[in-house]
Amino acid sequence: MNIANWLRRTAQKTPNRPALFDGEQSCATYGAFAARVASLASALMARGVAPSDRVAIVMKNEPDYLVALFAVWSMGGVVVPINAKLHAKEMCWIIENASATLCLSKGALAAALRDAGCVCPMPDDTWEAREDRVLLVAHRDVTDIAWLFYTSGTTGRPKGVQITHGNLVSMSLCYQTDVDVVRPDHAAIYAAPMSHGAGLYSMMHVRHGARHVFPASRGFDPSEILSLSRRYEGVHMFAAPTMVKRLTDHATSVGANGEGLNTIVYAGGPMYEADILRAVDQFGPVFAQIYGQGECPMGITALTKSEVADRDTDGWRARLNSVGTAQSAVAVRVRQPDGVEAATGAVGEIEVRGSTVMAGYWNAPEATADTLRDGWLRTGDMGALDAQGYLTLMDRSKDVIISGGSNIYPREVEDVLLQHPAVSEVSVIGQFHPEWGEDVVAFIVSRAGMACDTADLDAHCLAHIARFKRPKRYHFVPDLPKNNYGKILKTDLREWARRLPGSEPAP
């Protein structure tokens, strides 16, 4: 079942229903949306894109992002959405690893890719829509790959997660069953990157004929979000916990109550109890939480709006600090290192199986075999299940840093820092930050007789990786703590970070 059929059916039934909005400006009905998709799909095929070919998308949030997604799917291709905040070199690596036939991009982003010698983006006239096009949808099986999502482990380079059409259908139907109900009079605001959760959550809104609103800022601005919510009403939005905190802070400062907000689904990092209590007090029962991974997109557990807002039922606080219960299409368990399923309340590694779990990693059979065992996805996250099935995350077994809802992988930053001639050794950790969740902190051992400073290392990082990944603090130390086998003890470094006077955060 090709996910693009949902757009075709909605456009057939309600062609005059408003679909795409750029800020407060209407720019397409569902009939026009489908025609633009058909036009772009025709252009892709004219340039040699065939079913199962990968097409990269490097764009900021805008209406044409949805056009790109559904155009690739409708002609049978596979989308490779890439975070527009990445460095051009990082984007090019993903495009090359995916063997993408071409890349859909615009403006400065397209120019940066050309300058980096990447797969040449399609020319701007590709986006010229023809209103006479009829949307035809290629046949795809539920096992065919639809979305190649690049995530990273602590081993350095990103891995491509193969998300099938069946995975996307499962995730979307679980949203309706376990998270929230989408109606035609609702509006999805895309303030988080479309290359991640926000883009994934577009599908159920297309299926139900809802409106799709792209902020004029192309990102997250609290004042703009509140204004758009009042304008459109029935607003749904995906947000990282840091976005929820910023929205609450702004609304509190201006005396806004979030008029028009229907649902904010938060995920992508730890939500601190004090922050969600304040958010519910400010906006009311509009918040739901999900827990997922790239390998099981948005689809492991869910905590409903009523559960997040509950302050009366016995045990409400423990539930509020959980990530909810298993979504309908999956089973969740906690397993101890010896392979035995953990007892109720005991901590172990979280595992999940079901129709939302990925098909495997792209061209990485060993990584796939290590992560998918006997049908179960090993998440690498540690947690515990209570007697009612609520899952509480305890820690990450991987040293992933989550800052502002974005995953930052220490090894990736360490590899870049070690390319600097004055750096002998380095170890990167996350340190608590009240707004962003975590800051990136680097411990540096300089080479004998060579010196480097924060400004020098910042410039080096900015030349190789995205700005949000670079360390916010550097600690220059004579040695790194290690065990008898030479492994760096990051637990010790976290303790050092708490005790050492921190340098000023980088601007």
Structural notes for this entry:
The chain has 17 helices and 25 strands. The chain has 507 residues and is α/β, with parallel strands linked by helices. The longest helix is centred in the first third of the chain and has 17 residues, at 30-46. The model is unreliable at 503-507 (pLDDT under 50).
Properties at a glance:
507 residues; alpha/beta; Rossmann fold; GMP Synthetase, Chain A, domain 3; 2 domains; five-stranded antiparallel beta sheet; 17 helices; 32% helix; globular; disordered C terminus
Number of domains: 2
Any idea what the CATH architecture of the largest domain is? 3-Layer(aba) Sandwich
Termini separation comes to 48 Å
Tell me the major beta sheet.
9 strands, mixed
Q: In terms of topology, how is this protein built?
A:
Elements: H1 5-13, E1 18-22, E2 25-29, H2 30-46, E3 54-58, H3 63-74, E4 78-81, H4 88-97, E5 102-105, H5 107-115, E6 145-152, E7 158-164, H6 165-179, E8 187-189, H7 197-200, H8 202-207, E9 211-214, H9 222-232, E10 235-239, H10 241-254, E11 261-266, H11 273-283, E12 287-293, E13 296-303, H12 305-309, H13 316-320, E14 325-326, E15 330-335, E16 348-354, E17 360-361, H14 365-371, E18 372-373, E19 376-385, E20 391-396, E21 401-403, E22 406-408, H15 410-417, E23 423-433, E24 437-446, H16 454-462, E25 473-476, H17 490-499
Parallel strand pairs: 1-9, 3-4, 3-5, 8-9, 8-10, 10-11, 11-12, 24-25
Antiparallel strand pairs: 1-2, 6-7, 7-17, 12-13, 13-14, 15-16, 16-19, 18-19, 19-20, 21-22, 23-24
Helix pairs in contact: 1-2, 2-3, 9-10, 10-11
